[in-house]
């Protein structure tokens, strides 16, 4: 069994690759950043913005059974970019696809939702990962404010979120690829629901200095995201969805039927990456 990972050098892609390799499955990274591919893995050039690269994975001697799709980032027009590769893969005999989406994106909705709908229209086996907010966002978009100002800044005053780790998302994908699934998509959530005030307290205990949670408006958060370099439309979407969680949209996922519950808590992930805050 061989799996093509698009966006394979992402955090989830790398975690999934390790699991597949440990299980004896072949992995091929389709990437525009070959220097980021770990040693010991096969890779080919694949760039969503260049359809001429879509045949590269299939020009090898490996038979590809599964394709993991990480849609192009920061765009709502994901289907236009990914459809040619999906069609080409089906033509080459691929029967199983794994799509990275999100809890807030329904089939037929914007972005990955359109890809979800398209896969459903084809005679293929597919599985859609719909994770809630990543714990690892604390090490990315939130890291500067936490380190420099001791602040965790969100547009969620009191809402609870069942934060999920990338390792658990990768595990859900791995289980589908190796075992299949009785459902076409699953909400991927963590084992506990926390407020950002509680996350700030855990950060305080792990880092060893006071970290406070600062709640701001959706408009202010949108401006922050734009200052980080995100396009206006995408920044507006992120800030809006973040603000909605305060009304319990993500907290309600714990009672959903089609869910995959991970095992790593926020504290687990922070403790496992404690050195990050002193580097």
UniProtKB/TrEMBL annotation:
<dbReference type="Pfam" id="PF13460">
    <property type="entry name" value="NAD_binding_10"/>
</dbReference>
<dbReference type="InterPro" id="IPR051604">
    <property type="entry name" value="Ergot_Alk_Oxidoreductase"/>
</dbReference>
<dbReference type="InterPro" id="IPR016040">
    <property type="entry name" value="NAD(P)-bd_dom"/>
</dbReference>
<dbReference type="InterPro" id="IPR036291">
    <property type="entry name" value="NAD(P)-bd_dom_sf"/>
</dbReference>
<protein>
    <recommendedName>
        <fullName>NAD(P)-binding domain-containing protein</fullName>
    </recommendedName>
</protein>
<feature type="domain" description="NAD(P)-binding">
    <location>
        <begin position="7"/>
        <end position="178"/>
    </location>
</feature>
């Amino acid at each position: 069994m061989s799996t093509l990972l698009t966006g394979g050098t992402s955090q989830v892609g790398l975690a999934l690759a390790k699991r597949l390799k440990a299980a004896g499955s072949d992995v091929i990274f389709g990437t525009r950043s070959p220097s980021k591919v770990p040693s010991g893995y096969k890779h080919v050039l694949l760039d969503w913005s260049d359809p001429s690269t879509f045949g590269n994975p299939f020009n090898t001697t490996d038979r590809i059974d599964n394709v993991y799709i990480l849609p192009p980032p920061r765009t709502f027009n994901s289907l236009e970019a990914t459809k040619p590769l999906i069609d080409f893969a089906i033509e080459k005999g691929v029967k199983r696809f794994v799509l990275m989406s999100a809890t807030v994106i329904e089939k037929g909705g914007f972005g990955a939702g359109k890809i979800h709908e398209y896969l459903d229209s084809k005679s293929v086996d597919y599985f859609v990962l719909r994770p809630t907010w990543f714990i690892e966002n604390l090490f990315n978009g939130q890291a500067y404010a936490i380190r420099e100002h001791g602040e965790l800044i969100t547009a969620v005053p009191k809402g609870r979120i069942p934060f999920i780790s990338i390792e658990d998302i990768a595990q859900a994908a791995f289980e589908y690829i190796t075992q299949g699934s009785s459902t076409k998509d699953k909400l991927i959530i963590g084992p506990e629901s926390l407020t950002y005030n509680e996350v700030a307290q855990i950060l305080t205990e792990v880092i060893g200095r006071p970290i406070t949670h600062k709640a701001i408006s959706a408009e202010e958060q949108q401006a922050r995201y734009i200052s980080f370099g995100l396009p206006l439309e995408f920044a507006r979407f992120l800030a809006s969805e973040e603000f909605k969680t305060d009304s319990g949209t993500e907290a309600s996922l714990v009672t959903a039927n089609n869910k995959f519950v991970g095992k790593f808590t926020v504290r687990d992930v922070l403790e496992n990456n404690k050195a990050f805050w002193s580097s």
